[in-house]
Amino acid sequence: MPDNLRSDDPGQEKRPRINSRWRDRFIERLAQSSNVSRSAEFAGVSNSYVYRARANEPEFAQRWLAALWEGYEHLEMEVLRRLREGDLQTDDATKYDFANAIRLLNAHRDNAARAQAEQRNVSAAEIRGSIDRKVEEIRLRIQQERTREAKSS
């Protein structure tokens, strides 16, 4: 039997053994990836388990939002770094998907705004406005980079 399965009663169905630090592992990976499914898998729990914990544990829900904000900032900084340095390819030599990065930034905008508003004690609307301005700046930089790239080709 794999280490992560247990059965207290031989007649019972085997069920996952949950690491007592799953919340920390989940939050850590969520801050890195902004991906709930991958983070749950990394923590050794199901998506439904983490969503249930978020609904029932206010402190965990707050940590979740903070992790999403951190992940949002990581993505934003990665896009800006790539634009500043002209790093337009991924490690496997494919073109970096700026359009998808912008979509992700927009998709997580509300959660990120809510998390930052809680931390800074300001309104989510103010934060959303700030995020919208940053995303527009990134969009313009991408457009300028593409224009420069087209002229040099």
Account of the protein in words:
The protein is mainly α. The protein has a domain at 58-152. It is 71% helix and 3% strand. The chain has helices spanning 22-33, 36-43, 47-56, 58-85, 98-107, 109-120, 124-152; strands at residues 5-6, 15-16. Strands 1-2 form a two-stranded antiparallel sheet. It starts with a strand and ends with a helix.
Strand order of the largest sheet: 1-2
The structure class reads: mainly alpha
Largest sheet: 2 strands, antiparallel
Q: Compute the number of strand runs.
A: 2
**Helix share bin:** over 70%
Shape: flat
From the alpha carbons, calculate the radius of gyration and give it in angstroms. 20 Å
User: What is the string of helix and strand elements?
Assistant: EEHHHHHHH
Termini separation (Å)?
A: 58 Å
Beta content comes to: under 5%
Q: Counting H and I runs of at least 4 residues, what is the number of helices? A: 7
Mean pLDDT: 78
Uncertain runs: 1-15
What's a quick, concise take on this entry?
This protein has 153 residues and is mostly helical. Helix content is 71%, strand content 3%.
Could you give the topology of this structure?
Elements: E1 5-6, E2 15-16, H1 22-33, H2 36-43, H3 47-56, H4 58-85, H5 98-107, H6 109-120, H7 124-152
Antiparallel strand pairs: 1-2
Helix pairs in contact: 1-2, 1-4, 3-4, 4-6, 4-7, 5-7, 6-7
